[in-house]
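$ fold --in a.seq
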Amino acid sequence: MTTITLAWIALPLFVGFSSYLFPKLDRTFALGVALVSLGYGLSRMFDPVPLTLELLDHFGVTLVVDSLSGYFIVTNAVVTAAVVLYCWQQNKTAFFFTQTIILHGSVNAVFVCADFMSLYVALEVIGVAAFLLIAYPRTDRSIWVGLRYLFVSNTAMLLYLIGAVLVYQTQQSFAFTGLQGAPTEAISLIFLGLLTKGGVFVSGLWLPLTHSESETPVSALLSGVVVKTGVFPLVRCALVIEEIDPMIRLFSVGTALLGVSYAIFEKDTKRMLASSTISQLGFVLAAPAAAGFYALTHGLAKASLFLIAGNLPSRNIDELRRHPISRSMWMVLAIASLSISGLPLLAGFGAKVLALKELVPWQGVVMNVAAVGTAIAFAKFIFLPKKQPLSEPAEPTVSRPKSKAGFWGAMVLLLGGLIVANSLYLEGYTAMNIVKAAAKIAGGWLAYLLIFQKLTLKLPRTLEQFEHLIGVMSLMLILLFGMVLA
């Protein structure tokens, strides 16, 4: 298994650069790499024995591949495969697919890291590959959004690197376990880097603009898997070091409430989805033991929602209410929205039940409120008008792009994954859990129809502005110092 694991880690880099030699095979290569990862990830998901590889034992450079890694690897594989299918017949160049493969491989590398130095290298590669994909259209806007992302990411990683060096100075090891007993400033700097990279709490306010302004398939990759590279190490540390767990849980509730507040009042579909991503990352962090399953269900649902949003006639919710969308498009939109809201028979139900079951008592009320907020936010999609089967097509008053080739292949893969993944936690199907889930969704829909559908409120975006993002990181650093010292 050791040889297979090392070959699997190296495969994306080898295949990615080979795409330049065989540009006509770029799509096939990208899809093949994703399918290999899917097979490997599934094998690790169901293997109860973790695989540990000590690459440089003197420095604590170690890889750990266990069930938690398996869930995140499968998420990365399915989302990448769906994005490749979506782009299959588009005019994307070999450069796009090469960067997609490299991004896929470096994201996988994060999910097997168990030390701060390997993690730093992988996160830096992810930052560069994500920047190149965001700036791929080569428009002034896309280049500005990409540079903004790269600046925030590099600043966060610089602080993270200082923290990692401080851990090594104290423990003579880069291993995650070295965080126990590390200096306060080391823990604070590492956490600030990861919280920013993962889009958690206010340090993740760079996320809505970046994810909403990127091209549709890139938005799916960013929200589906890339942000989870900042969250995964936090989950791993919380599982390994008991003292870290309360701090992670505290950030989880703040993140869930902050994100869902923005999502409820947002009228732009892509910004709403990006704000929801912040909220859902809070759910991933809320219960580290359930993080893998929740990350899988969120990744599949959010990637499909971004791909669907890119094919709707408008990004404005009010405009969509005035112009019915096709029944087929509404159907896939409703399935993904219902899963993320936690409806039974879809994987989101089991993920929410498992996550809420693993909460400590003080988290319960807040996370249930956030779950109702999620139902309110996604009611915007559920209650969109759809065309009647025999009605004449409405006169087009807005531009209605045709569904891109490959769109339905991607939908089958992602939504099929949500249905299949539903079987991973059948123990959650008790009468009480079903009633609770139905009550939260019904409550959210009722609140939407009676209050929020008619309410127009624009939350301030001041902290999202470029000149304030670094200032927010400074405030977060002070907060982290206080939490660690406490």
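$ fold --in b.seq
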Amino acid sequence: MSERELLQQPVSELLEQRPYLRDFFVALQLGMPGPGQCPAAFFAGLQAAQLAELGLDHAALAAQFVDFARHMEQFQHGGDQPVRKVTLLGGRDKQGRPEDVQLEFAPGEVVCVVGPTGSGKSRLLADIECMAQGDTPSGRRILLDDRPPDEAARLSGEQRLVAQLSQNMNFVMDLSVREFLTLHAESRLVDDSQAVVEQIFATAVELAGEPFTAETPVTALSGGQSRALMIADTACLSASPIVLIDEIENAGVDRRRALELLVKKEKIVLMATHDPLLALSGDRRLVIAGGGIRQVLVTSERERANRRALEALDRRLLAVREALRRGETIDFDF
């Protein structure tokens, strides 16, 4: 919508298309224009002294209104362009030895990060999260579509390039699951937020090992339920094109289903894991040792076949776990 259209269209029509514009008038405490009045006419009718108290004149007020509308529109639609490629340029390991790699990641790809505890897996994820430009201990650099990320967007708290699911997750707000999801959906300015909330909740219950209700306080969720909720929230609501996951296997969720959900949304997924099922579910594995990327393995057909055998074993273990939860005895022959 052009600047002229924003200023000349009746407010009732603007609010129907862009309900968030109401916040502009409320925040400045200028009152609301009449339903048939356009913003330009409303602004022209305000007293200069009234605007001076806000440090504005009529032209500045109109310019701020247009800037606000455009900023919110960009926020609603998740930025100008999707990320088509992420490139990682190697830095150095903990001993200062060069890390001679250049890796590219594409939407829909799952890349697993493996290595011993303390090897540097979390450092790698952190480099991607902050879009490192040689300014972290590893010296790595991250490019988006062959270019360094915009510095303002990189350092802005509003940038949504990366969503991260960490090992430690605690809620500190006094809200129910439904209230939390509604708050997040409304803050993202999504259309039909209640339908989105119901979708996220149903997905989270599907992922969690134990059911919960939408009225459950978020502070009462178990670790697995919390992770399931945030995985569903990331998959269904987050506009971030890159998702970083740190050891999802510790969450007690349906990890295969979680991965399917994230990949289906055409996100670039990097996942640190010790779980063989997850590691073999990725397209590639980055082997980390001593703080550096030592090897890049492409998942072979043989490994995919082995993963299917492991899945059968995993389903059996899951059945035993469920039997234990029901208080049953475990008695079967291998």
